[in-house]
Amino acid sequence: MNLEIISIGDELLIGQTLNTNAHWIASEVDKVGFSVTRHTTVGDTKNEIIEALSLALKKNDVILITGGLGPTNDDLTMPVLNDFFGGKIIENKEVLQDIEKLVLSRGMEMNINNIRQALVPDICVPIRNKNGTAPGLWFDINNKIIVALPGVPFEMKAMLTDDVLPRLIGKFKLPIIIHRIVYTQGIPESKLAEVIAGWENNLPSTIKLAYLPSPGRVKLRLSSTGADRNKMSELIEIAVEELKMIIAPFIYSTEAGNIEEIIGKLLSDKKVTIATAESCTGGYISHLITSVSGSSDYYTGSVISYSNDIKVRELGVNSLDIEKYGAVSKQVVEQMAEGVLKKMNVDYSIAVSGIAGPTGGTDDKPVGTVWIAISSKLYGTQSKEYRFGKIRSVNIERTAVAALGMLRELLIK
Amino acid sequence: MNLEIISIGDELLIGQTLNTNAHWIASEVDKVGFSVTRHTTVGDTKNEIIEALSLALKKNDVILITGGLGPTNDDLTMPVLNDFFGGKIIENKEVLQDIEKLVLSRGMEMNINNIRQALVPDICVPIRNKNGTAPGLWFDINNKIIVALPGVPFEMKAMLTDDVLPRLIGKFKLPIIIHRIVYTQGIPESKLAEVIAGWENNLPSTIKLAYLPSPGRVKLRLSSTGADRNKMSELIEIAVEELKMIIAPFIYSTEAGNIEEIIGKLLSDKKVTIATAESCTGGYISHLITSVSGSSDYYTGSVISYSNDIKVRELGVNSLDIEKYGAVSKQVVEQMAEGVLKKMNVDYSIAVSGIAGPTGGTDDKPVGTVWIAISSKLYGTQSKEYRFGKIRSVNIERTAVAALGMLRELLIK
Known about the structure:
The structure is a homodimer. Chain A is built from 16 helices and 17 strands. Chain A has three domains: about 1-170, Molybdenum Cofactor Biosythetic Enzyme, Chain A, CATH 3.40.980; about 175-255, Alpha-Beta Plaits (2-Layer Sandwich), CATH 3.30.70.2860; about 260-410, Maf protein, CATH 3.90.950.20. Chain A is an alpha/beta fold. The two termini of chain A are about 45 Å apart. The model of chain A has no long low-confidence stretch (mean pLDDT about 90). Chain A has a six-stranded mixed beta sheet, with helices on both faces. Helices cover about 45% and strands about 25% of the residues of chain A. Chain A is globular, with a radius of gyration of 26 Å. Chain A has helices spanning about 10-15, 20-30, 45-60, 75-85, 95-105, 110-115, 155-170, 190-195, 195-200, 230-245, 260-270, 285-290, 310-315, 320-325, 330-345, 390-410, and strands at about 1-10, 35-40, 60-65, 90, 120, 125, 135-140, 145-150, 175-185, 205-215, 215-225, 250-255, 275-280, 300-305, 350-355, 370-375, 380-385. At the A-B interface, helix 1, helix 2, strand 2, helix 3 and helix 6 of A face helix 1, helix 2, strand 2, helix 3 and helix 6 of B. Strand 14 (about 300-305) of chain A pairs antiparallel with strand 14 (about 300-305) of chain B.
């Protein structure tokens, strides 16, 4: 079953707002077996919306639209869909009740914009929105389903998960899609492709391979579409096992999930705790760790020691070593790791110190130079120097990924 | 001049990778006066790429394509463009030299995939890639420009900024586009629309208004396209000044930039320093602060006190108060703010304690309950309770934005 995602909004079109909705929807509908054929983003303009819709109807069974359902004058999605499919706009009593309930629960009074949100085309089924005032719209036209949802991500997500997806799964007979990701680290894409070329050429024709590079990592995605889940799983499993025999040292996971989720599971399973001492990442590693629900079971806290003064006072780094070796050095980062291990009384610690850029580099230590240390009661302290690139945000991300990667290696020892 | 952005890659289509490229490109080309008409994302499939390209050529002067230029078998962009425009693939000596230089500088040896990257259509101008092995491709066909760039964000960004944009600006006579954003906080979209309806209806016809809601904030974007920059600026300026008279308390900025950049500028200008004590945000506030280049001038460090034990030991919170009032309380968060202010010896501090969810809520303090305190030597300590929603990531983001918003209010006093 083919599905297209249409995102509506000038703010998306001109790059004012990042389109996380299309990304999230794609991942959800792909999981249940729809083939996503295209994402299209258009502005808040009647003709653009109609053109995108007409194109999408030509080759899709389902069209999911987000955005432009708000109460304000720049929101055109509802009237345009109504005109396109030849409906009549009427006030829906149930929608109005939902809105009233929500508005009152927030301690506010109904206003004209709230009331306007209860106007929906008579040819669609409204979809309830527990988190906002704009209802979704479900059109079933000539056996094609067109659904419009609000652009506010958490409203849209709840509506898709609770309501739209179950309806879609009930309506269509979907094929099975299996994706398996092999996460690699420490080997560039071109080198990886060279090393696994023989394996790749011998993959079964039903398995499709994709290389997904991102800072410091390349994900390999194996995909298979069909009807026999067991058979498909088995073939993918064999392929992954063969791959492991070729590039084992570079694989950090073959399970779904980010590195912070993998780390979280490892720490949980071992019933051990972790703390971080961060300089150049400025809290990003602890943010990643705590973005995982349940992280309070293994994460206790961090010292973000941006200034040297705090490295000395809070982490017990020897100030003479900072003078002698610099803050970005093996000596300092190892003392940071040991300092925070002791201070937080944890089983493992991560410390990083580096030059994120764009300024602060020297000939000896250019922007992108980063030292990472891992300390543990069991294995002592180890550290490693990295040379990343020139871009601040990329350096922060690569440092965090590399640090969590080092920790993972120690945890699976 | 109309421009379409085409993103190629199965990983984008099925939601495995977030399309940050289209977002960034849109913002860059919009700034210099192109009208972005559409973003289209298609998979690594010849027919899909050709269909998107054919459609885009119908109504655009420029098409910017990213993705599918790598050295591996799933990368189709180069051969498809070559066939589509009827070229011949040849080895380009200059490109090969660039690749050799880059590969050797990284301490590696040339492999077959590196050499393959030097193959480009003879009917295009290759665009140098300083940060990777895949060159860009610039086609000038019947006065329409079609540019293909690699999908790796930092490679693509450098090529667009250094090479493609200057060429495009040189080739086309572009109109002037002015956008002005008014950042509001603490007022919901529907209420805001109600309050400013009169102002909105009286805007000059050349000014277009958009509401851009995100967790805790609504951005108002005023846009104007034309030829007379001074006149356009003046009209927008008048509109913004009128708006300020209506909703001043809710506006936290009328300058471009995120709240962390605005805070950074305020702290820099005042030559004061900041530290954070974070519980539920787990380092996200310090990550935002340090994502701004130059933040080491005003940011010294943080204590991420996830466990109560660390709140007591490191921040001097009274453990009896934690027992009596709970960790998510006025008493505890104020002590956290005062503790970190003293410990880090800074001028201002932010502390947050809350229930990010999805678990941990009670009847009294449901998921989404957050206390935020700001402390300073000059103004003492103040705190406020917030009730956000149920979604962990949204709660973390809203807490950070609200905390930085509270700090901003104090800084502009």
